[in-house]
Write a structure and sequence with these properties.
This protein has 98 residues and is an alpha+beta fold. The protein is built from 3 helices and 4 strands; from the N terminus they run αααββββ. The strands form 2 sheets. Strands 1-4 form a two-stranded antiparallel ribbon. Strands 2-3 form a two-stranded antiparallel sheet.
């Protein structure tokens, strides 16, 4: 659960893989062990990845932007949603750096 918490707060690149594994917590198999090991190897090799943002504009030019993504059923019959709120301007935007 610590990886899920970190993915939600700081490592958005991990969210899909972690959420997919979490779906199988009650019916875990050896294949899921293999996937978890691969995910942990990826996390270890990318510890220096960070999400960075900067403010490069006066407050009058800044706007809040809400990005929503929803899948109401999809091909697996499970509903998922997600949102990302950011402050943006002509010279202001969050981005991932390595």
């Amino acid at each position: 659960m610590k990886v899920f918490y970190a993915a939600r707060l700081a490592r958005f690149d991990l969210l899909r893989a972690v959420a997919n594994l979490a779906r199988y917590s009650t019916k875990w198999t050896a294949e899921h062990d293999r996937r978890l090991a691969k995910l942990m190897q990826y996390i270890k090799s990318t510890l220096n990845y960070r999400q960075v943002g900067w403010i490069g504009d006066p407050i009058e030019q800044l706007n809040l932007h809400l990005y929503a993504d929803a899948n109401f059923g999809g091909d697996r019959g499970k509903s998922t949603t997600g949102v990302h709120l950011s402050i943006e301007g002509p010279n202001t935007f969050p981005h991932r750096s390595e």
